[in-house]
From TrEMBL:
Protein name according to UniProt: Antibiotic biosynthesis monooxygenase
UniProt organism field: Kitasatospora aureofaciens (Streptomyces aureofaciens)
InterPro entries according to UniProt: ABM_dom, Dimeric_a/b-barrel, Jasmonate_Hydroxylase-like
Domain ABM, chain residue ranges per copy: 20-91
Pfam families, alphabetized: ABM
One function term, GO molecular function aspect: monooxygenase activity
Keyword annotations: Monooxygenase, Oxidoreductase
Organism placement in taxonomy: Bacteria, Bacillati, Actinomycetota, Actinomycetes, Kitasatosporales
PANTHER family to which the protein is assigned, alphabetical: ABM DOMAIN-CONTAINING PROTEIN, BLL5343 PROTEIN
Keyword flag Iron: no
Amino acid sequence: MSDHPEAPAVPVEAFEPPYYVAVFTAVRTPDQSGYSETDARMKELVRDIPGYLGMDYAQSPGGLAITVGYFRDAEALAAWRTDVEHRAAQQRGRAEWYQRYSLHVAKVERSHGFVRTEAPQD
């Protein structure tokens, strides 16, 4: 949803399946007036959704932005999808901030993670 310079250096942890992901991929328009403020507000709102697990984001130098939201169940995802402020932000995004986007929603059936605990050997 943003270039998120404050993004953590680690991805969101692997959760016990099943859970849901919403993958939002976008190319933004040159005029991003008001985007940062709306993005900050959306981050505040989504944290209050019961069943919200976290979010990962990345942006390429060419402007492709990917946001992955993690939700414990379909009800949590539906609560986010239907939130009134989120719906208004979506409309503004289509009118002003996005050149194009796609949204993919999936149920995760398998999940695992890895953390290196020592420096790699040369």
